[in-house]
Amino acid sequence: MRILKKLLFVLLTIIGIVLIAAAFMKKDYAVEREITINKPKDSVFNYVKLLKNQDHFSVWNQKDPNSKRTFTGTDGEVGFIYSWNGNDDVGEGEQEIKKIIPGERIDMELRFKRPMESTDYAYFTTESLSPAQTKVKWGFNGKMPYPMNIMMLFMDMDEMLGKDLQAGLDNLKVQLEK
What is this structure's pTM? Predict the structure, then answer.
């Protein structure tokens, strides 16, 4: 009985330390990748502002080509919502265009419903490097709520999300330059 009490005390102490550590850890994360595409800025921006086009370059959209997709509003305009419901790899959620700076930036809100509820944010920016070259940045940011933020000790969000963002940008380059 005495050993059991000591084990319980040690376990509760470890849990307490973890919860205290999580209280002081960062909760926000941000990931961004970029690529240069050999196309004029206007044609690149007009392509990425259409959320339906992500089916052609986003690795997340390609993980379940049979997912159920629904659309509300006019693609490429503020208020457009792209919803999906798919397998365990993609889950269920929606993204909504929240703000557009024509030719420069599109901001989206992502609302994940399954496998885990969360709200995150993504954006694309385009910058003209020359009349025939455009730098595209794809960014993603969000918050990991307490006490789940303790998982950020074991997960490198930049590495996890960054490789998918970069693969998507690589696909985008191939798509636009063909």
Answer: 0.80
